[in-house]
Amino acid sequence: MKKIKTLRTAFLCGLLLNAAASGAWYTVRVHSRGIPLSDVEITVRETGTAYYTGTNGVCVFSLPGNNTNTLTALLAGYLKQETRLISTNVIIELEPVAGTLPDVLVRGAAERRPGKTAGMEAADIARTTQVLFGDVAQTVTSMPGVVSSGSSIDGRMYIQGGSDSEMTAYIDGIPVTHFYRFGGLNTLFNPSYIASAELYSAGYSAAYGGGMSGVLSLTTRTPASNGSGFFDFASCCADLFYTVRPGAAWSLTADARASYYQFLPALLYPELKDTALQAIIDGLVSIRYTPAQNDRFQFLVLGSRSGFDFNMPALEQFSKTDTPIENGRSAGEELLMVAGLSYAHVFDAGHRLTAACAYTPWWSLTKASMRFISSGLTEINPGITQDVDMRQTVLAHLIEPSLRFESAAFSGNTVELGCSGRLYDITSSLDLAHFTQALGSSEPAVHEEKHRSPGNDMYELGAYLTDSFMWQALTLDAGLRCDYFGYLSSYALGPRIGIRADLFDVFSIYARAGRYAAFPVMLLTAEALPGLQPERAAHLLAGTSFEDRDVLIRAEGFYKEYTGLIKQDISRGLVNAGERTVYGGSLFLQRKQQLRQWVDGYLTYTFTRGTETVRGRSPETAASRYAAADGVSYVPGHIREHSISLLAAFTYRSNDVTPVFNMFEGLKLSIDWRVMSGKPYTMATNVIAVPGGSILMFDAYNSARTPWVHKLDIKLSWYIEHMPPGLLGALFGAPAMPMEIYVAVINVYNTENRSDFWYYVKDGGLSVYYTKDLQLTPTVGIKMVF
After folding, report:
1. E strand intervals along 349-444
2. What is the distance between the alpha carbons of residues 142 and 672, in angstroms, rounded to a whole number?
3. Lowest-confidence range among 141-150, 309-318, 556-565, 598-607?
């Protein structure tokens, strides 16, 4: 026993000596009157680097060399505390003090609301490979209850059986309703400037409106005092980030990046040379101003320009005729911006006022030129050449103001009341030109169509009241929201309630329920919406969680009913005729990051099952039929029953067992593994020749399933704390700086991953065209930190 103890002591001494030589790890615990405090900002004053405590009130970080730095702890409603860093284990006690304002007041204004399903910090987001074009959606779709489309370049998120348009997002408390580019290929959110992502999936607070299936709340990074940033250059995109505090009251965060990943896949796979991979330039500017101790302003701008240009393959038409597309070209461009302004004022430790307003201008242009040539095999349909030129533009403006007031004046109670609004102005136009020339004719017949949708000024108003009551181990959250849809002359009431019991220090059970209402934004381009009502949903969720210093385990079950879903009617246009029922559950297992830990990450499993039914539409006719017959239930195309996600990191730590490898301290292998069951689709079974063309025969609507999607991405990165200046120093006198080198491989085992099917007629027979994900794609990059 004495020998074992001596060996253990020698081993620990070796670790401490090695840490002293290359840097040390520090554990900081923050609490107030014995209660751990989460989301406390811990800033190293000498470097400006900021860290945040987890739900257990602990944060772990490393600093190079022997440090005598000063830590600053900041949290809303508590006195700022400064502590000298003289030990690797630090305990900080914060006292609630009236009239104080932390250095970061609006840090994701709603991330502490009840109903959060999962929360991910910057380290979790970094585990995803994020090398094609970084998108927070790549991490969000790994959270419990969320699935993706299965594509590496698709940012659409489906929360617990809801569609991608049935969720809403906030960034630093500023609403961002329209955040998808070109229908969902990417979101606006670059992980480089995101500090945390919070997901609310069911039964969430009445403070949220407009999201029937879920809410995503994002928080941007905190600026450093002395200025810091990085330049990340990879084989698919480049990113420049910088943050600084130019004065005591001002701080600035800026980011700009550009993609060029249309080149690498086409180089590796020549058959993709005409694939519509987007070219994107986007950025962020965030300015925070604190004129007084109790006041904080923030101005935030997100901007994006995206576009595509590709050749269309020579295929026969995908519908009822066998008219082939001889050739064609399609191109598009989109400009999207979100500008937000927020203000927060702390009256005292128990009262706070927050106001925010977002303005979103959006412009989209899509152009297509195609040539069709009919077969000319029958007298009814002689040989005809038809050229079609199409140009469609959409211009939209969206304004979203909000105001909320929080009060914790009553013992055990936190009351919040607020209001919000949305003002839309959407204009669209469509120009079509047909140039048709029959066989043997010398002059083409010209037919032009122009459609204009006048600007529609439409608005929504909302108001809510919430109360969070704590009594011993019980927490009760209740709220009521009322939304008025001005363009529909309709209102909706949304009661919300949740209860949580903390049975032990590490174990709790909870249940939540609520009613929600929203209206699809893109349908607002319709000139008339007679008789329509907002879509509605009811949520029910129950779960249990176990959380200690090392692990978090959470299991949840949910049930959701959607009513009044808007569908197309043959004779009446848009009608509230759809119903959807969804149920399922999720399991979340996380190993947290701890001091000198080699392995961390999380595993999620989500089960979702649901059906949708459309009732009460006009009868079908011989010329017009519905994809799914009235009253027949089917599975919506976005529901995948099973989804598994594993995000893990293996980090080499210097030790006395393998000292020869200690130079690779911080070498990290990140694993991003996704498995999903197939999505529903409608299978074509036969093709029938008719005079003038062909008719495709289909099986029952959405009765088939695409194959399972399974994909493994890996990323090997090495963070070098002091890179020698080398050639840069010789030429420009550049000092030594930290650097990260990484190699990533997308789709390691090169699965085909067919995500969709398109049927068409070729040579009189039935053919199929597959939509596939990227196959094995290696990428490299280097990040220079300054």
Report:
1. 351-373, 384-407, 413-438
2. 9
3. 309-318
The helix/strand/coil state of 127 is helix
Distance CA 203, CA 206 (A): 9
Kind of pairing, strands 24-32 and 89-93? parallel
Task: Quickly count: other Cβ atoms within 10 Å of residue 328's Cβ.
Answer: 18
Of 721 and 780, the structure prediction assigns the larger pLDDT to 780
DSSP string for residues in 236-252: SEEEEEEEE--SSSEEE
Q: CB under 8 Å to 249, separation ≥6 — which residues? A: 289, 290, 291
Residue 454, amino acid = P
Quote the CA–CA distance of 230 and 222 in Å, as a whole number.
15
Both tokens assigned to 380? 């009814």
pLDDT tens by residue, 76-104:
667 778 887 777 778 887 866 432 222 22
Quick: pLDDT tens for 38-76. Answer: 778 888 877 767 787 766 677 777 776 555 678 888 876
CA atoms within 13 A on the CB side of 165: 10
Is 527:573 a contact under the CB 8 Å cutoff?
no
Q: Which residues pair with 175 in a beta bridge?
A: 170
Q: Which two tokens stand for residue 549?
A: 């210093």
Q: What is the DSSP string of 505-568?
A: SSEEEEEEEEEEEE--GGGGGSS--TT---EEEEEEEEEEEEE-SSEEEEEEEEEEEEEEEEEE
| Tokens at 474, concatenated | 């019980």
User: Taking 90 as the threshold, does the pLDDT of residue 612 lie above it?
Assistant: yes
The enclosing H or E element of 18 equals helix 2-22
Domain locations along the chain = 1-97, 214-225+235-299+310-358+389-429+447-519+533-785
What contacts 15, CB < 8 A, 6 or more positions away? 596, 654, 655, 656
**H-helix or E-strand spanning residue 727:** helix 726-732
Q: What was the pLDDT predicted at 673?
A: 92
- CA nearest neighbour of 256 among 245, 241, 267: 241
What share of the chain in percent tops pLDDT 70? 74
Q: Find the helix or strand (DSSP H, E) in which 101 lies.
A: none
Return the beta strands (E) in 161-213 as ranges: 167-171, 174-176, 180-181, 186-187, 194-200
Q: Please, are residues 147 and 158 in contact by the beta-carbon 8 Å criterion? A: yes
Instruction: For residue range 495-504, list pLDDT tens digits in order.
Output: 999 999 988 7
Query: Please, are residues 584 and 558 in contact by the beta-carbon 8 Å criterion?
Result: yes
**Beta-bridge partner residues of 308:** 332
pLDDT tens for residues 186-211?
A: 788 888 888 888 888 888 889 888 88
Q: Please state, rounded to an integer, the average pLDDT across all residues of the chain.
A: 77
Q: What pLDDT shows up at residue 418?
A: 93
How far is residue 397 CA from its own chain's centroid? 22
Question: Which are the contacts of 121, defined by CB distance < 8 A and separation ≥ 6?
Answer: 52, 54, 195, 196
Tokens of 723: 């890179």
- Beta partners for 618? none
Residue scoring higher pLDDT (663 or 676): 676
Residues 772 and 753: beta-carbon distance below 8 Å: yes
Average pLDDT over residues 320-333: 56
| CATH for 214-225+235-299+310-358+389-429+447-519+533-785 (1.20.1560.10, 1.10.1660.10, 2.40.170.20, 3.20.20.150) | 2.40.170.20
Answer CATH for 1-97 from 2.40.50.100, 3.40.640.10, 3.90.226.10, 2.60.40.1120: 2.60.40.1120
**What pLDDT score was predicted for residue 286?**
92
Give the residue with greater pLDDT, 612 vs 650: 612
Task: Report the pLDDT value the prediction gives residue 315, as an integer from 0 to 100.
Answer: 47
